[in-house]
Amino acid sequence: MNKYIVKLEAEQRGGLEQLISSGQAPARKLMHARILLKADSGEDGPNWSETRISEALEVSLPTIWRVRLLAERLVKVGEVQQVSNETVRQVLKKTNSSHG
Fold this sequence. Notes:
This protein is mostly helical. The chain has one domain (10-97). The protein has 5 helices and no strands. The protein has helices spanning 10-22, 27-39, 50-57, 61-76, 85-97. The longest helix has 16 residues, at 61-76. It starts with 9 loop residues before the first helix and ends with a helix.
């Protein structure tokens, strides 16, 4: 069972799919987009488990949990109404840059 739920609207899914198909973003950003798309438990999402995402995308489980957790927390604290990959990227960038 997935502890952190990601539900994307059709517009968000389309934006992430377009980002991936363009291939013009940094690899890390593209990977986060792929994770969000596979984790999506919305109406059109595949709702893959963390294990399945980890195996298919060759990423660690902590990476998947971090992306899911961050997406859920941003919505819960009211910072955003919905989460897009860009929102997750910006918050991760702020967090990573504040460590040193």
